[in-house]
Amino acid sequence: MGNTRRTFLITGGAMALLAGCGGGGYSGGAGAPDDPMLRPQPNPGWDAWVAGFRGRALSQGISAGTYDTAFRSAGFLPGVVERDRSQTEFTRTLEDYLAITANEQKVSQGRSELSRNMGVLREIEARYGVPPHVVCAVWGMESSYGTRRGNIPVISACSTLAFDGRRGAFFEQQTLAALRILERGDIDPAHLTGSWAGAMGHTQFIPTTYQSYAVDFRGDGRRDIWSDDPTDGLASTANYLSRSGWRRGEPWGLEVLLPAGGASMAGGSRSGAGWAAAGVRPAAGGSLPSGSGKLLLPQGAGGPAFLVYRNFNVILRYNNAQNYGLGVGHLSDRLLGAGPLRGSFPPDRYGLTIEDRRELQGRLNSAGYDAGTPDGVLGKKTTAAIEGYQARVGLPVTGEPSQGLLAQLRRG
User: Fold this and answer.
1) Mean pLDDT of 7-21
2) Which PROSITE patterns match (predicted)?
3) Phi-psi domain of 300 (left: phi exceeds 0; alpha: psi -120 through 50; beta: other)
4) What angle do CA 184, 168, 89 make, to 5 degrees?
């Protein structure tokens, strides 16, 4: 499977996760999506595609009954096409990424879920060798611990994208795989739901990955990653990581402190003894792991430093983005009780620290402009709020933050 499990969704790495953390039009609950553009609408072209696809699906072993039942309630979803075409290739900094995916609320929620599910997670670890806190971190990254599993019908979403044609062959393959899920009886059409691009369940498997890696952990005859019970979803994730090469008992990596001039060693690989001899030490104290580790400086010499090991590369098989791998690793450490990163992040391109950005958002909110949650992550709401404030006070309307803008907001 390689990296097809998630990176098909959004190129640019960091955004793939953001889609899984609560993109438009899907939630953990039942019922139709709130966005009317994500509900079936008449489209004769899609109807013709469905009629033509029927023969291809039946030739691949799908029964006529399964096919006709699956498509009886399916339809063309224009909002899916809109989302697919409006994807942007950009990555957030690691600082912003962690502020979204490993913030204190996510850590607190994750610790509760880890404790509540520890029994089954220990059973999963015994079978697949992947520790509970790592599986739980993936769960948190992908669906906020099951609260955002998706409620868009997978047959409708995948067939819409197959018909649309931009990635037609890929999504025809996903539609066929979804039909095989129905053929096998793992789920019924009404509950075969997911994100706008067909990622499903507690840990957001696409249909082909489900076929290859989903497991029936309790042996009840169904590989159910959709229900409120996360057991099969968590076990399937552990199976995926195990079969991707996870090494039991080895770390993903750790934050480290560098000696003066140590940034020049970025990208290099050495043994634990070699790194220690070079003056690298664990940020949390103690000694370095003995295996071969690679030094990463995701935000350059001014930001935190990490040594990553073989299991980090296994996490990247789940989503081939450096920020994602560091996010899962860091969140998994936090779930075990570790504190925030010790290293500081440099100011952004506007000269603002994350504390500055949080203050900016808070002051915009207080001034009557909705900048969203003051998390220090600048998005569309913050931009619109800045534009509104700039227009009101007679500044050039750029939508961009600055130290000067923050100073003016402080003055009221």
Assistant:
1) 38
2) PROKAR_LIPOPROTEIN (PS51257), TAT (PS51318)
3) left
4) 110
The predicted structure's pLDDT at residue 165: 87
- What is d(CA 38, CA 30) in angstroms, rounded to the nearest whole number? 14
Its pTM stands at: 0.90
Closest CA to 180 of 223, 236, 231, 237: 223
Tell me what percent of the chain is helix, strand and coil, each rounded to the nearest 5: 50, 5, 45
| Banded pLDDT at 412 (limits 50, 70, 90) | confident
293, β-bridge pairs: 270
State the Rg of the chain over Cα: 23
Q: Centre a 10 Å sphere on the Cβ of residue 47 and count the other Cβ atoms it contains.
A: 14
Q: Partners of 257 in the beta sheet?
A: 281
Phi, psi of 282 (to 5 degrees): -60, 135
User: How many angstroms separate the CA atoms of 303 and 94, rounded?
Assistant: 9
**Would you put residue 355 in left (φ > 0), alpha (ψ -120 to 50) or beta?**
alpha
- pLDDT tens per residue across span 90-131: 578 999 999 999 999 999 999 999 999 999 999 999 999 999
Supply angle C-alpha 91, 364, 90, rounded to 5: 10
Query: 3-state DSSP call for residue 412?
Result: coil
CB distance 205 to 235 below 8 Å: no
Residue 389, both tokens: 């404030």
**In residues, how long is the chain?**
412
